[in-house]
Amino acid sequence: MTVPGRRSSTFSRLLRHGFTDPSGAERLLDLPELIALRDDSVLLDALGATADPDLALRGLVRLVEAQPDEERQTLTSTLLSAKPFRDRLLGVLGASEALADHLARHPRDWQALVTYEAVDLNPGVAEFEQGLAEATDPVSLRVSYRRCLLAIAARDVCGTAEVAQTAAELADLATATLRAALAIARAAAPADAAHCRLAVIAMGKCGGHELNYVSDVDVIFVAEPVDGADEGKAMQAATRLASHLMRICSETTVEGAIWPVDANLRPEGRNGPLVRTLSSHLAYYQRWAKTWEFQALLKARAVAGDPELGGEYIDAVSPLVWQAAERENFVPDVQKMRRRVVDNIPAAQVDRELKLGPGGLRDVEFAVQLLQLVHGRGDATLHSGKTLDALKALAAGGYVGRADAAQLDEAYRFLRAMEHRIQLYRLRRTHLVPEGETDLRRLGRSLGLRTDPVAELNKEWKRHASVVRRLHEKLFYRPLLDAVAQLTPGESRLSSKAAGQRLEALGYADPAAALRHLEALASGVTRKAAIQRTLLPVLLGWFADSADPDAGLLGFRKVSDALGKTPWYLRLLRDEGAAAENLARVLSAGRMAPDLLLRAPEAVAILGDPEGLKPRGRDHLEQEILAAVGRADGAEQAVAAARGVRRRELFRTAAADLIGSYGTEDSPRELDPGALVDRVGLALTDLNAATISGAVRAAVREGWGDTLPTRFAVIGMGRFGGHELGYGSDADVLFVHEPREGVDEQEAAKAANQIVTEIRRLLQVPTTDPPLLIDADLRPEGKRGPMVRTLKSYAAYYHRWSLAWEAQALLRAETMAGDRELGKRFIELIDPLRYPAEGLGEDAVREIRRLKARMETERLPRGADPTLHTKLGRGGLSDVEWTVQLFQMQHGWAEPGLRTTRTREALAAAHSAGLVPTEEAETLDEAWLLATRVRNAVMLVRGRPGDTFPSDGRELAAVGRYLGYGPGRVGEMVDDYRRITRRARAVVEDLFYGG
């Protein structure tokens, strides 16, 4: 008897044996049905060895209660006397609630676990067919299927079969089930069966002999008419048989479903016919099939129906699979396929996704299949549908490093074991790791983790996922380095031909040159070469993820050659996680940023500093440049120093823009194009203003010492004044001066003109640094007018001669350098012109519209596509800016928000004032941002400015990548541009031209 307040000895024993609800377990053990078992220590030990002792005991009680009276004694005595049976039954009951339900419904099926002969340890299709032989309808087929599944699960949870064997047994059971289902379908329609030969081809995991407990069974149907039969009628008969087979397996009955049969991998997917002839299959694959379809055919295996026809199908398609790497579109297809497909996974599930998440099963499977496609055309040992067998063959052939293959093999087995046990619990199709403590505890214990199951499970899972994530890219690239470095004698390695094939498959246009670069970087036994061999596998993957991998690798070699002897360089790339990826993105995204970097490679340090990519403000830049000018000997040296700072900051701005546009593994790409455009425009404006300030200081000091005879200011115009500079923009300016007191006007004018001439010369002197082009064509009288005027001269001209376009150009005027007080007075002078009191008259509006229409017809370059020209084309920059500027001139006098030099700010102010409806304002803003980004992209990619999309395919793809379009989406990008700008032009027609 138990003393009140004290736990019984049974309670304590249950607790020690792993029960989480000992009190409930005690009550169950006291049931009359278990009276023969309750005091048996062997039973408690066996229950304690299961994944979930509480679940196992509940399942056992249900099974015993369900037994007929005459069978109950047989079950209990067998349970106590036969250890193999005891372990198998309780192991299943402790791991699978669904199979416990089956045993409760079919209480005699426990006998399927009693026999323990050699054949039971390695059953094949024949044994499973025997197990399903009595099934004559969908319901009995499900019962027989579950009975066979019991034995597979028992071997799995008891450790008799390892994970790959379990997966193979599940595939063999699926094969036997498809055959049984086809037999039932034929029996139901003997006339259809007589008209056709039908073969069932297993695909996916079933075809690869690596099925899960619950998974879609992917199939393809191929059929031929029997001799003398009409082909059309034969295909209809075969389609009816195939459809019936699918329903037999997929439909839910009183015994549930077996698994869905999915035929969507067939030619044309769900839009194509369910059944085709062999010749129809071949015609499709030879002409229309995409690379992923050949990847799917890697696992094709004839499993049911006419064996001769199935064999003919496999023999016919296999050569096509291994020729896929020679197809014209293989490289772009591979680049698309290599990107992880996680966009459709809800954000809350990404970290629990065992299959598709980072470091998941799909990573291993895809990597292995891709390497098979690339190298299998010349090596038949790689022709296996099983992931682990193929991985082993890849390692044996030197296509994958042996250590990497061993680590991936271990990780894949662990992740598949997790997947099996998760699905086994309720026999539901899921790849999500559970969140509940009880579920995680059962999962951990089922994998042999007993000390602290939940903590140990999470640790092991994360460790293996991390291995997969780390090796996923290195798997492709490390053997390439082994091939060129040749450090380990006797080790299997890629041949030069195989290495070239792999590089070509991963997007490198010149594999031979790429191999030379790798050899130069990674050969030898120096510490530098050793670090490069560590870095390059990852870097090569990032390069391949861009539109121009060759340029990325070449740039990296040049930077490494320049900085290789500098101790901090390789240490930066090795130790600063973001630096290496940032460098890879910058080097492979186009010409401009790498050109800037190679002129002064030490700027690579910017990429490793967390604050390094943030733009420096104008005050900071001006302070640095003026200090450098002050230390220099002579004007040319001073401006050379200023231009050096400008080159460094151009690189910083371009690098930040590229990295923000592409995104990295740790930092997603910037989704707001407005933020990117504004950041670039402001950074470049501040940089050019500071550089011009330095040039003015240098020119004054060289010719006049500390003080110029005249006050002098530089007024920014156009995109410069609007803080909207692009990478290819000139600096539009006006120069204004005012003689100092007592200085002769002619002397002052001469000094001002000398300053203008000198700063323009200094900023364009040919050096390794990019020039800063000064454009003063917006001055009064244009190119025919004086380069610099006094403030009084500007006042007189604007009062008497100013034209509408000049007042419009002044909307963007802002002081950028020189005498701030003089600049302020110039702005006060022009404000009444650009924001005229009471707005514009009808004549002025008509004149502005006339000028705009004339510009559209006369200034668009000959042969340019008006739908794609970013500046002057339909719905481009000019359309949006003239529309906004018209509102500024009409309403700026009354709306303070419109008095800004910045297009987007003025558009937002016009919207806030009710002048532009919300939808129209958003349309104009979207088009202006897109056109601006296209211009920036062209400069970044080509290294020279342009107003339309590049014609070169690789350059066009690089522009697309910058804009967020993945491989193969160039057409979509151009279509989007036309659609967005077409809508903007419709708004311009309404708002600017008055409908």
Written overview of the protein:
The chain has 995 residues and is mostly helical. The chain has 44 helices and 10 strands. The strands form 2 sheets. Strands 1, 2, 3, 4 and 5 form a 5-stranded mixed β-sheet that branches. Strands 6, 7, 8, 9 and 10 form a 5-stranded mixed β-sheet that branches. The longest helix has 33 residues, at 453-485.
Structural class: mainly alpha
Average pLDDT, rounded to a whole number, is 90
* Low-confidence segments: 1-6
Question: Quick one: overall form?
Answer: elongated
What is the tally of beta strands? 10
Query: What Rg is obtained from the alpha carbons, in whole angstroms?
Result: 38 Å
Give the proportion of residues in helices: 55-70%
Give a short account of the largest sheet: 5 strands, mixed
Calculate the terminal CA-CA distance, rounded to whole Å.
Answer: 98 Å
Strand share of the residues?
Answer: 5-15%
Number of helices: 44
List its traits.
995 residues; mainly alpha; 44 helices; 61% helix; disordered N terminus
Per-chain topology:
Blueprint: H1 9-16, H2 22-29, H3 41-48, H4 53-66, H5 69-81, H6 83-95, H7 97-105, H8 118-121, H9 125-131, H10 138-157, H11 163-188, H12 190-195, E1 196-202, H13 204-207, E2 217-225, H14 231-250, E3 261-262, E4 275-276, H15 278-287, H16 291-297, E5 301-305, H17 307-322, H18 330-338, H19 361-375, H20 387-396, H21 402-426, H22 437-446, H23 453-485, H24 496-505, H25 511-522, H26 527-544, H27 549-563, H28 567-575, H29 577-587, H30 592-599, H31 618-631, H32 635-662, H33 673-704, E6 710-716, H34 718-721, E7 731-739, H35 745-764, E8 774-775, E9 788-790, H36 791-800, H37 804-809, E10 814-818, H38 820-834, H39 842-858, H40 877-891, H41 903-912, H42 918-942, H43 953-962, H44 970-991
Parallel strand pairs: 2-3, 2-4, 7-8, 7-9
Antiparallel strand pairs: 1-2, 1-5, 6-7, 6-10
Helix pairs in contact: 1-2, 2-4, 4-6, 4-7, 5-6, 6-10, 9-11, 10-11, 11-14, 15-17, 19-20, 19-23, 20-21, 21-23, 22-23, 23-24, 23-25, 23-26, 24-25, 25-27, 26-27, 26-29, 27-29, 28-29, 30-32, 31-32, 31-33, 32-33, 33-35, 36-38, 40-41, 41-42, 42-43, 42-44
